[in-house]
Specification:
By secondary structure, the protein is of the alpha/beta class. Helix content is 34%, strand content 22%. The chain is built from twelve helices and 20 strands. The protein has a nine-stranded mixed beta sheet, with helices on both faces. Strands 2, 3, 9, 10, 11, 12, 18, 19 and 20 form a nine-stranded mixed beta sheet that branches. A two-stranded antiparallel sheet has the order 4-8. The longest helix is centred in the C-terminal third of the chain and has 31 residues. It is globular. It binds flavin-adenine dinucleotide (FAD).
Length: 450
């Protein structure tokens, strides 16, 4: 075994923080409220917090503890553009695209305000996430995507790796104008604290096993009790397919992982030329992400999505094979760090929609749902939650909520997020990597011969 993998800690939660020890009590007996929120990720917490701020009698039900899901496990990169391929979205959803771009840009702004308003200390560095190219072809894609964004009024800084201060492992990229990186565990923990301190009633260890509409009300059942509400917001993200009430194929879950190295000597990090410290995501069909942390480690992830899960989504430890594949790619992209040991690895369930867009909607007049931020939900899920909360209080939808709102109650299955589709996309990326590697070697050979 490669010695750098000898002491990897595989965790079924996250590498960013420890689970909380002050759990709120579970739901017991029959209780009532005006609005219920199911799911205590960043989406559900922001929904409940906003409802409480606006004076609504709100209850949040969470199956484990607030921040248990993707919200504490992600790469911590606050993106300010939509997830998915903008070229594809321009063809498939031309009318929606301008609104989606504005929504994503405003989401980054919202999360910055959320941290400030609730004094959440989460190591935020507002250094704009970079769409990084590992090859000239990827750089061409970056420029095309940057042009699409520019036309829609969102400028990014396009340049070589040196110009935008990212490692020379990359040809260049585009830095988004807003957002940056943070410790997502600390963010979730801080927002959980704000929620527990608010007027919202929070029940943790309260997994909802059924949601039903009954005589104008909504009834949620847990193993310990029953909650009856006038309205409910279902904010369970990748877990959203658990109940019949949710439109079929709203969200397809996939499992992805993140890996963290041991701390690296500051002079070795300085030698990488990562002067901006910005987090980067590559332009593969399934991206690789890389970022520095305040503890001088590098966190990197994704590259492979695993689908085919059935509900309920169970806790899971990362697969060492997936970890090795990511680590080997990291060592190839950063050869000067190929002796740095891997410290830990964790994973989480992420949600995809068939249209590759963020979605919100309503069943009847009292069951609201949101899902599928397609890997960009760290800012978008809470922003969306706050907009749904406002729409419940105001009785109307804001322009940004309208831009992701779906009136229809059925969604087609995802053409890509299935074992066959994902394998095909993974292979496509690997062939591009191989071609890129041989082109690079040929260029080097030609240069040394001349
Ligand atoms: C490894 C990883 C890396 C990522 N990297 C990034 C990134 O860098 N940037 C970015 O923007 N996004 C990233 N994402 C995506 C982002 O984390 C999510 O889009 C976002 O956190 C979704 O928030 P949420 O509140 O909708 O869902 P979650 O955080 O998943 O919350 C859903 C909650 O619902 C609860 N729940 C589920 N079922 C029930 C039930 N039956 N009853 C009660 N409660 C229930 C769960 O326990 C969970 O706490 C990443 C995701 C993962 C997994």
């Amino acid at each position: 075994m490669n010695p750098t993998y000898k002491n990897v800690e595989y965790t079924s939660f996250t590498g960013w923080i420890d689970p909380p020890t002050d759990l709120a009590p579970p739901l017991q007996g029959a209780q009532e409220c005006d609005v219920a929120v199911v799911g205590g990720g960043m989406g559900g917490m922001a929904t409940a917090l906003r409802l409480a701020e606006r004076g609504v009698d709100v209850v949040l039900l969470e199956s484990e503890f607030c921040g248990y899901g993707a919200s504490s496990r992600n790469g911590g990169q606050i993106a300010s553009a939509p997830g998915g391929d903008l070229r594809m979205l321009r063809v498939l959803s031309p009318k929606k695209l301008p609104g989606m771009v504005r929504f994503a840009d405003n989401a980054a702004d919202y999360v910055e305000r959320l941290m400030k308003d609730h004094k959440v200390e989460c190591d935020y560095e507002a250094n704009g996430m970079v769409w990084a190219a590992v090859s000239p072809i990827q750089m061409f894609r970056v420029k095309t995507l940057a042009a699409i964004l520019r036309k829609l009024g969102v400028d990014g800084q396009v340049g070589t790796a040196k110009e935008i201060g990212i490692p020379e492992a990359f040809v260049g990229g585009m830095r988004e104008r807003r957002g940056g990186m943070l410790n997502p565990g600390k963010l979730s923990r801080g927002v959980r604290r704000a929620l527990l301190d608010s007027s919202a009633r929070v029940f943790e260890k309260s997994r909802v096993t059924n949601v039903q509409r009954q005589g104008g009300k909504v009834v949620m059942t847990t193993s310990g009790g029953e909650l009856i509400a006038n309205k409910v917001v279902l904010s369970t993200n990748a877990y959203s397919g658990e109940w019949d009430i949710i439109p079929k194929h709203l969200s397809t879950p996939a499992w992805i992982i993140e890996v963290e190295t041991e701390p690296i000597a500051p002079e070795r990090i300085a030698a990488l030329g990562w002067t901006s410290r910005s987090g980067v995501v590559t332009q593969h069909q399934i991206m690789e992400n890389y970022r520095l942390t305040p503890r001088n480690s590098v966190v990197f992830g994704v590259r492979r999505l695993e689908s085919g899960a059935s509900y309920p989504l169970l806790p899971r430890n990362p697969d060492p094979g997936m970890m090795r594949e990511l680590a080997e790619t990291f060592y190839t992209r950063f050869p000067s760090l190929s002796d740095v040991p891997i410290a830990r690895c964790w994973g989480g369930w992420i949600s995809f929609s068939s249209s590759w867009t963020t979605v919100a909607g309503r069943v009847g007049d009292n069951v609201y749902y949101s899902a599928s931020c397609n890997g960009h939900g760290l800012a978008q899920a809470p922003y969306l939650g706050s907009l749904i909360a406002d729409s419940i209080v105001d009785g109307k939808r804001s322009v940004d909520l309208e831009s992701v709102w779906e009136e229809k109650a059925s969604y087609p299955p995802s053409p890509v997020i299935n074992p066959f589709g994902l394998r095909a996309v993974w292979l496509f990326d690997r062939v591009s990597d191989l071609l890129n590697g041989s082109r690079r070697r040929a260029r080097r050979a030609a240069a040394s011969a001349s």
